[in-house]
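User: Predict the complex.
Assistant: Input components as received:
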Amino acid sequence: GTQHSRSSPTSDFLADSPNQPTINQTNSNVVDGINLDEIKEFAKAFKLRRLSLGLTQTQVGQALSITEGPAYSQSAICSALATQMYCAAQLASQHQAMFEKLDITPKSAQKIKPVLEMWMKEAEERYKSGQNHLTEFIGVEPSKKRKRRTSFTPQALELLNAHFERNTHPSGTEITALAHQLGYEREVIRIWFCNKRQALKNTVRMMSKGVA
Amino acid sequence: GTQHSRSSPTSDFLADSPNQPTINQTNSNVVDGINLDEIKEFAKAFKLRRLSLGLTQTQVGQALSITEGPAYSQSAICSALATQMYCAAQLASQHQAMFEKLDITPKSAQKIKPVLEMWMKEAEERYKSGQNHLTEFIGVEPSKKRKRRTSFTPQALELLNAHFERNTHPSGTEITALAHQLGYEREVIRIWFCNKRQALKNTVRMMSKGVA
DNA sequence: AGCATAAATAATAA
DNA sequence: TTATTATTTATGCT
């Protein structure tokens, strides 16, 4: 009845997880003999180590795709590896009953862990022996200069706000036109609308909270 | 003190905009720093260009509502844009006192101008490359506009994930049912499962590499 | 120093 | 694969 009725190659991977995970009733969060807290800790630590090397998820992913093969492409890495692993562990530790809903099984995490650990260890080695070594290892330079924050003129803001009021999601054409008209880079205008939408959403959220 | 890094010729038009429109008493018809004569000229030229493409106002309006989004909806837009803009400029130049009664302010006109310019430019391009291209551009062009990204509620995600765990390939009926239950479009739910399967596949790919 | 918000990054829907 | 949303960071200004 509740058996997995799929025939994708992925099923092999999930096959060995029983229908009901064995959940340890203690606070140690052990599922199927795997310590979720441990995995969670690892994921957290991994992020910290990544950040202290000044690396983005993307960079790690790209580097991994070089050393480990093309399976690690772009943003896939981020969601599939570090983040989901982290979330999975976190969720599982909070609500063990939710376990089955997670994107990554504890076993998966357990398997991936050593790969990440190994890679990170080497990256840190290189880092210690010189920034250029790390750069070489990564293949991409870790940090580029942040763009200088632009300040909009009041006039520009007025126009942007007026536009935003009519349409919070301007088309590409509109953005280009606005950028041209105002004399800012197109990307700057695009980002402005992103941030503006975000601000609006925050405001709405806050107001609804406040009323409630 | 701090100068801004913009260099737009157009932004100068908006230099200062007090609450009350500043009406220049000279013959140059400048209101709120916007040159109405210039707009009038633009509107005239736009009409000419439109006619030489053999297009009606309605057609332009409909096309704009497609490319620029619902903010420019209906044929009303067209008259609100092209015609009234033209009239506004014309009227304003004749009777500046009437200006405020118009549906379109000089500022609006100024803002809309580049959109129209852009659109017309593209239309003319298409026209040059063949009548059918123009027709295609004008007609019910398959929405170049990307659908707004929907964000799922945590509750919806929980249900979806639970379902996915049981069956990664829900049938059409199941998808419909889920969509109805959750109050999302069917297509949105369908895509969610596509993306989810993809994510799973990525994880599996990486793991097989990692284990090897 | 702290605030407002532009830019950058991460997550993920299309 | 692309592009949008969500979150985080950090900068220009007061």
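Strands of chain B lie at 30-31, 34-35.
Let me know if you want any component modeled separately.
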